[in-house]
Design a protein that fits this description.
Elements lengths: L3 E4 L7 H12 L4 E3 L6 E5 L3 H11 L8 E3 L6 H4 L12 H12 L4 E6 L6 H4 L4 E5 L4 H9 L4 E2 L14 H8 L5 E4 L10 E4 L6 E4 L5 H8 L3 E2 L26 E6 L2 H17 L4 E5 L11 E4 L6 H17 L4 E5 L7 H11 L4 E3 L1
The structure holds threonylcarbamoyladenylate (TXA) and magnesium ion.
Magnesium ion binds next to loops.
Amino acid sequence: MDTLVGRIDREDIDDNILKKGGDIIRAGGLVAFPTETVYGLGGDALNPASSRKIYEAKGRPSDNPLIVHIADIGALARIASMKDEDYSIPGIYDKVVRLADSFWPGPLTIILKKTDAVPYETTGGLDTVAVRMPSDPIALGLISASGGYIAAPSANISGRPSPTRINHVIEDMDGRIDMILDGGDVDIGVESTIVDLTEDRPVILRPGAVTADDLGTILGKVYTDPALAGDTDKAPKAPGMKYRHYAPKADLTIVKGDSDKVMAYINEQAAINKSNLLKTGVICVNEHLLDYTATSVKCVGRSDDRALTAHKLYAILREFDDEDMDIIYSEAFDPDGIGQAVMNRLTKAAGHKIIEL
Ligand code: TXA
Ligand code: MG
């Protein structure tokens, strides 16, 4: 398949390109597009054949549900029940309206009970639906041009880091889908926060830029899926969180502890690896750049700038793949604010391998 690539200037959007993308999605095709979190791989959420195509293009297991993206709060009632009696959490209608008011458009996905309009192909067989209104104007324009409902997972081949730059999307999706909208680099760099409102209490299934504290102002106490910490045998409730996503080709380990000890340990390992003809990569804060003696050292911003770490993390994991790194060590980062999402993705990429010094 030939994949059309359309460059769009976010400040001066060409409606003809959006219309072209919208027509492709209405006709059952697939279009990758930028959102503020990561690039998405979009198809018509209400068309079961489109959802099947998405799974095929990504090489993704079809029990892993897709997020439905909307551009207008008025579009919600067609796909999700807003009836209080369908939920255990009291006052759901009021809570969803207030969440939307505060966090949409933006990096928040809300799990609600689905209506019959949403095919099981889109929800991976579940009776619930994940909904998000992204803030990138290119995404919003494409959703409107496509009929209002785009199912979109991250636009990577299953198992690779989510795409945050256009070259990542082209690498993974060229030849597999109809069109790619090139909006340059995304802003945030890690996927949206997912909050589930279909159980007895609000639970975060995936941390993102919107934190539990942010949500707490509207939802009261917000819980975190215990499976995310890896300290239970229970499978995570977001089916996608059980797969080893975001995995670089190299063996990645997080090294935690006092920074002098961390540096000494990593440098020592890098020397041993080198004598075994293995290439070592390091992920660290800017302040430590010159302290490491490894094959390739990559910085993720100053130690007080976790937003920049989120922005750079997936690109760095892909760069290490391109450099054929054998072993990667990463420093651990403060889990405050978006740092929680960073550590969640890094820990998954490391397959939960953490050394505490
Ligand atoms: O930021 C984002 O959310 C990006 C952009 C493109 O919007 N999308 C994204 O989609 O990250 P994806 O498919 O890569 O991740 C969706 C996650 C998966 O872990 C999936 O299991 C979970 O959401 N999910 C979707 N629907 C669900 C549902 N009904 N119940 C529980 N988890 C659900
Ligand atoms: Mg994904």
